[in-house]
Specification:
single chain, about 400 residues, Growth Hormone, Chain: A, globular
Length: about 400
């Protein structure tokens, strides 16, 4: 059983993902409104939207590993607090350079925080519920995207585009204060000096890049990266693209929110299949459905009702992928490597995510029709289907290695 304190801790950790999802959507929703407010054209925001991803990668590579030494709470609380302050500062930007600087700093703080949130949620969860708990906690991302979409019109009416960053930044600061009192401090559970020096390395996460773990980590990270490309491509530009298909700005934001909310149901269902059915086919079903939905959009004329239903499958599927894949990691890796695999997987995935916003900006600059813009998302989704064919082979590594280690211990 999970204690009441740990349940509250998991709820607050999910809140960090809600904040991240709201933050992703906030910038995308603000972009088409900045042309009138500040004279900044949406096509100039490709690198601004990528700035947060660069920051997350940099923060994940340089600061997040300190959680293994000083404890997860310090990195999570300080990272969340800094994220809130930098998000609030974003509301003061008046140039693309200003937005780029504050978005990079926001990402840098998130990069220190997020891998430790994922790791701590897996450590708090009971072993037999680890994949499910990780999926539920990470479900905060589509929930945050949904909340941003449906509340954006009211927030903007009350405080213009700045209000999006006031809400997100303020929420992050409150979260940091609450987590300071709830999360337990100290080194991660089970972290012992002897374990840290396993295989003669002070950086056990480097084992993921060596045989035999390279195959499962490669499959996990590549699928995560391809899905992240779609996630950031779609959520960065959907509020800008949909009005070009005839929707109003407010309706476009709401459609984006509804499509992201569908990711909650899809993610929970897909996680159940991964836990209780064949994992490779479950992922092929998820990403195959996404690819077909985007192809259908590519081949049809704009229609609000039809496109909303298709985007619920496509955009919802991209958010569901972010929920399901950390749970898959719980099946691919032993407990001693799980936190490192999730943290490093998120870091490597940012390489794929970097391409999303600039790709969208390039298509906008080329005046690509909305159908084609959204149809392009079928390509990464199809690549995920092909990578899922390797999941079965990747799953064989863990039992083989555990059997070998057991035999060596007996000998």
């Amino acid at each position: 059983m999970i204690s009441p304190r740990n349940l509250l801790a998991l709820a607050l950790l999910a809140g960090v993902f809600i904040m991240e999802g709201f933050d992703i959507a906030a910038m995308g929703i603000a972009v088409p409104r900045l042309e009138e407010a500040l004279g900044l054209e949406p096509a100039n925001f490709g690198w601004v939207l990528t700035g947060i991803l660069v920051g997350i990668g940099a923060g994940g590579a340089t600061l997040a590993p300190l959680g293994d030494r000083f404890g997860r709470r310090a990195l999570i609380v300080l990272g969340c607090l800094a994220t809130g302050l930098f998000t609030l500062a974003t509301s003061t930007a008046t140039t693309t350079t200003g937005f780029l600087v504050w978005r990079f700093m926001t990402g840098f703080a998130l990069g220190a925080c997020l891998p430790n949130v994922s790791a701590l949620s897996s450590e708090i969860a009971p072993p037999h519920l680890r994949a499910t708990v990780m999926a539920v906690v990470s479900a905060g991302i589509p929930l945050g995207l949904f909340l941003a979409g449906v509340t954006a019109p009211a927030i903007i009416d009350a405080a213009q585009w700045h209000g999006l960053f006031y809400v997100c930044g303020g929420f992050a600061v409150v979260l940091a204060v609450l987590m300071m009192g709830v999360l337990e401090g100290g080194p991660p559970k089970g972290a012992k000096p002897a374990e840290k020096k396993a295989d003669g390395s002070k950086l056990p996460q480097l084992m993921l890049f060596k045989s035999p773990w390279l195959l499962p980590f490669g499959v996990f990270a590549v699928i995560l990266g391809l899905n992240a490309l779609n996630l950031y491509l779609l959520n960065s530009w959907l509020p800008t693209v949909l009005p070009q298909a005839g929707l109003t700005l407010d309706v476009a934001a709401q459609v984006t929110g509804v499509a992201n909310l569908a990711g909650l149901a899809i993610g929970i269902g897909a996680s159940f299949l991964v836990d209780n059915w064949k994992k490779g086919p479950a992922l092929m079903l998820l990403f195959g459905s996404m690819a077909l939905s985007f192809i259908a959009i590519w081949l049809t004329a704009p229609d609000q009702t039809r496109w909303t239903m298709l985007l619920m499958v496509g955009v919802g599927g991209a958010n569901a992928g972010g929920m399901v894949l950390p749970g898959l990691a719980a099946h691919l890796f032993p407990a001693r490597l799980l936190s490192s695999a999730v943290g490093m997987g998120v870091l490597v995935a940012r390489i794929g995510a970097f391409a999303g916003p600039p790709l969208g900006a390039a298509m906008l600059a080329a005046e690509v029709p909305p159908q084609v813009f959204l149809g392009v998302a079928a390509i990464p989704a199809t690549a995920c289907v092909l990578m899922a064919l390797l999941v079965g082979r990747a799953l064989l590594v863990r039992p083989r290695e555990e059997a070998r280690e057991e035999a060596e211990a007996v000998a």
